[in-house]
Amino acid sequence: MAEALAIRRNGRRDAHLRDQVNYGLRLADIALSKRDIDGACERAYEAVSANRGVTSTRMTTNTADFISRIAAYRTHSAVRELIDIAESSE
Fold first, then answer.
1. Model confidence over 56-82: pLDDT tens digits?
2. What DSSP string describes 23-48?
3. pLDDT at 16 over 90
4. Has residue 17 got a pLDDT over 50?
5. Which of 6, 74, 3, 79 lies closest to 44, judged by CA?
6. 32 CA to centre of own chain
7. What 3-state DSSP class applies to 46?
8. How far apart are CA 50 and CA 55, in angstroms?
9. Contact 22, 63 (CB under 8 A)
C-alpha cells in the first residue's frame, strides 16, 4: 500500500520538489529492501537530483541516510556512481 501511494505521489508532475525527494527515497528504500540495487539507485538518483532544488535540512539528512544504507553495496557500479553524485551535491 505504501509503495502504491509513493508511486502515485512521485508520478505527479505538479508535486513539490520536497515531495519528489521524500517519495523517491521511500521508493528507493522499498527497492533496496527487495535487493533491487539498480532500482534503488535509479529512484535515489531522481531524489538526489530533485534535492538539489530543495532547501530542506530534513530531505538532505534523509538523502544522506539513504546513501549510508546503500553504501553497503558499493561494489555495485551504480551504487558507486550514486555515492559520487550525492557527494558532489553536498
1. 888 889 999 999 999 999 999 999 999
2. HHHHHHHHHHHTT-HHHHHHHHHHHH
3. no
4. yes
5. 79
6. 10
7. helix
8. 11
9. no
